[in-house]
Design a protein that fits this description.
The chain is of the alpha+beta class. It folds into two domains: 116 residues, Phosphorylase Kinase, domain 1 (2-Layer Sandwich), CATH 3.30.200.20; 203 residues, Aminoglycoside 3'-phosphotransferase, Chain: A, domain 2 (Alpha-Beta Complex). The protein is built from nine helices and eleven strands. Strands 1, 2, 3, 4, 5 and 6 form a six-stranded antiparallel sheet that branches. The protein has a three-stranded mixed sheet with strand order 7-11-8. Strands 9-10 form a two-stranded antiparallel ribbon. A hairpin with a 2-residue loop joins strand 9 and strand 10. The chain is globular, with a radius of gyration of 20 Å. It starts with 22 loop residues before the first helix and ends with a helix.
């Protein structure tokens, strides 16, 4: 059985608004903060520390003069509590140790703890930082031939789901819940309101609103039984996969939490839901999934619901993360491109 998840505390909140620092200065401060964390892991100060991604968190590649390479994640202030981060690390480590899937390995600091805190005068508050062993591989591109990787991903996802159903979670385990209310609801959704999407107008808002209503109705009927709702990765998009020969590795568990298992079928096509090959790729995913677990007809039927839910959730994410390169690259076009997907969903399921 899947027990009810604990709610995250709100004690680790931002002391200084992000807007208080200009974008260039913000990047400098984050870089300086990441570099200052090197000593806590016993690393020399002359390591090369280069930003590779800035989204919820800032992620850096750390190159040590002796040839070692690591990935450092400097956590966004106020998003996850210390307990939630430790819970994430416990799960991805358990998956790795059990041989379920290759995941990044958290590395202990000099005090023996994988989770460190680091300070900077401009931040006004300690930040959480985690150092991971480097994982080789390349992010798959949507333009590549992805049928085999998606089959492998489906199989890996099923292995993760099967493992997690019987995995004894540590006491106090804490992660976000990703359900209808926390994704598209009107009260405090995790990534903000879809109504604030870039380029939103009254016509789009009406169309999206009808779609959201239908999603809510269908998911209410679908339910949250333990065979459908549990601990999931929650962000298996292409940017969080590494293809290394025949292996598909899973990284970035920052959004893992309690949600519908079939949501993990929708996230691999994130930002590419409109591409013509999406339907075929999801079929490949299902083929791989069935190698490990049965896929009920009700689950298959609802995958399009999770695809459009994810699309609208990303409309909200882009609006609330407008400062990121990814959000800027998607912008208004992503909101407008969501309209035909909503029309097709309404036509199919209304």
């Amino acid at each position: 059985m899947i027990s009810q998840p604990q709610q995250q505390d709100a004690s680790y909140t931002a002391a200084i608004p992000a807007a208080a620092l200009g974008s260039d200065r913000k990047l400098d401060v984050l870089q300086e903060t990441a570099r200052s964390a090197l000593s806590q892991y016993g690393l020399p100060p002359d390591c090369a520390v280069n930003l590779i991604n800035l989204s919820e968190n800032a992620t850096y590649r750390v190159d040590v003069p002796d040839g070692r390479r690591m990935a450092m994640r400097l956590h966004r202030d106020g998003y996850h509590s210390e307990t939630a981060i430790r819970s994430e690390l416990a799960w991805l480590t358990a998956l790795r140790n059990a041989g379920v899937v290759a995941t990044p390995q958290p590395l202990a600091g000099r005090n023996g703890d994988a989770l460190q805190r680091v300070d900077h005068p401009a931040l006004g508050r300690l930040r959480h930082v985690v150092l991971f062993g480097w994982e080789d591989g390349e992010e798959p591109a949507i333009t590549a031939v992805l049928h085999r990787p998606f089959e492998t991903l489906g199989e890996i996802t099923a292995l993760m789901h099967r493992f997690t159903r019987s995995w004894p979670r540590p006491p106090g385990f804490e992660r976000f819940t990703w359900d209808f209310d926390t994704a598209l609801g009107e009260h405090n959704p995790h990534w903000g309101s879809w109504r604030l999407g870039m380029g939103m107008d009254s016509q789009l808002e009406r169309l999206f609103g009808r779609t959201v209503t239908l999603i809510g109705q269908r998911l209410l009927r679908y339910g949250k039984g333990p065979e459908r709702f549990g601990l999931i990765h929650g962000d298996l998009r292409l940017a969080n996969l590494l293809v290394d020969g025949e292996a598909v590795k899973v990284i970035d568990f920052d959004d893992c939490g309690f949600g519908w298992s079939m949501y993990d079928a929708a996230t691999p096509v994130s930002f590419y839901e409109h591409e013509p090959q999406t339907a075929d790729l999801i079929e490949c995913w299902k083929t791989g999934y069935r190698r490990v677990l049965p896929l009920a007809k009700e689950d298959e039927t609802e995958i399009p619901t999770f695809v459009i839910l994810r699309r609208l959730l990303l409309v909200a994410w882009i609006a609330s993360h407008a400062e990121t390169d990814l959000a800027r690259s998607m912008g208004v076009a992503y909101t407008e491109g969501t309209a035909p997907l909503c029309e097709a969903y309404l036509s199919r399921f209304s």
